[in-house]
Specification:
6 helices; Aminopeptidase; Peptidase M28 domain-containing protein; Peptidase_M28; mainly alpha
Amino acid sequence: LGSPNYIFGIYDGQTVAPDTPSQAVPGSNKITTLFRSWFDTQKLPWNNTEFDGRSDYGPFLAEGIVAGGLFTGGDDVKTQETRDYYDQMLGQGMGGIAGAFQDPCYHQVCDSIQNINVFAFEKMVQAAAYALESLARQDDLSGWLYPSGRPTRSNNELPQRKYNSVNEYFRLPYF
């Protein structure tokens, strides 16, 4: 949550994989909205981030469990457009470096606490705290997240997948 050439990425619940069980979609969209509202209230820039299942949340969505989250960037290159947007919102020089990786140490040995942007990290922690507090204040959190009911193993819509680990689920070379 503190990539050196950060973005304020919000996982976009509207971009879940088409085979995501429908119970997970409304709550995931609500979590996306919570994060967007925090960034808007704070007058901070934000970007939608694909919710494509390539991270730790993937197995949860695959089982119909609501998910949401934040992302400050990985091995993507920051565009000039994104840099300019961040400069405009945060002030000249705060937009980072166009044409450079958002996090050159993403999933590398150098990925450590010394490799973070403290400003971005602090804002993301504040956004996460806001979302958690908002969720905690819900009188009926389950009903809010799952308006059509929670997923159950007896529900025919849920896939019957078994994973021993996140690594097995993704089978990507860098895990």
